Amino acid sequence: MTDSFVVTSPTDPRARPLVEDLIREYDQRYGTLFSQGGARDEVFRYPPEAFAAPHGTFLLLIRGGETIGGGAFMRLDADTAEFKRIWTRGDLRRQGLARRIVLELERQAATLGYTRVYLTTGFRQPEAQGLYLGLGYRPLFDPALPPELYATLPFEKHIGAQAGRLGTSPLKQPAASFEAAAQATAAAKAARSQPLAGAAS
Fold it and tell me: E-assigned strands of the chain?
C-alpha cells in the first residue's frame, strides 16, 4: 500500500484524526498545565491560514485513504520556519513515519526559501527529543539539566542553502523551578495567540 503526502489545510476533514489525537495525547501528558483550556487551546492557537502558502504548509500522510500522520510549519521570521503539529497514528509509531514527515517538512520549507527550522517539544515527550536529535537538530537548552526546568524544549536546524551550518542561537535559560518554568511557558503561549507580524504579508 502506497503512502502519499498531501498538502492541505487544518480545516480539511482528513485532518481530523491528527487534530483530535494531538488534543487527546497532549491532554494526557500535560492536562491544563499550560492553559485552562488544555490542548484544544494550543492546537487552535493559530488560524488555518498561518499554515498556508506562501509562508506555511500543512501536510498529511495518507495510506489507503486514511490519515496516518502529518505536520505543519508557519513563518517565524524571514529565514525561519516553525514546525508544528507533527503527529503519527499511535498504532504505527516506531516505524520511521515521524522521521519521514519531518524530512518532508524540511524539504517543503526549503522550497519556500527558508534556511532555518525552529521547533519546540514538551518536557514529557522524550521520544520527540530523540527524533529531533537523531535528525541533527541542535538543542537550544542544556540537555544535562532536568527538562522540567524548561517546560518546553527548543531546537534549531539549518536547511536548504544553509544546510549543515552550525547554529549560533543562544540557549534558553532554565527556570529556578518547574512551577516557574510552567508559568513562563503559559505566559509565552498566551502572548503568541496570533502568528508573528509579517506572516500574512
Answer: 3-7, 57-63, 66-75, 80-88, 116-122, 138-139, 152-158
Q: Distance between CA atoms of 57 and 118, rounded to whole angstroms?
A: 15
Contacts of 152 (CB under 8 A, 6+ apart): 120, 121, 122, 123, 185
Element of type H or E holding 180: helix 178-191
- State which amino acid sits at residue 136: G
Residue 145 near residue 174, CB atoms below 8 Å:
yes
State how far the Cα of 136 lies from the Cα of 77, in Å rounded to an integer: 21
d(CA 31, CA 120): 18
Tens-digit pLDDT profile for the chain (201 aa)? 789 999 999 999 999 999 999 899 988 888 887 877 878 888 888 999 999 999 999 999 999 999 999 999 999 999 999 999 999 998 999 899 999 999 999 999 999 999 999 999 999 999 999 999 999 999 999 999 999 999 999 999 999 999 999 999 999 999 999 999 989 988 887 776 544 433 333
pTM of the predicted model, to two decimals? 0.90
Nearest to 73 by CA among 64, 82, 63: 82
Q: What count of other Cβ atoms lies within 10 Å of the Cβ of residue 161? A: 11
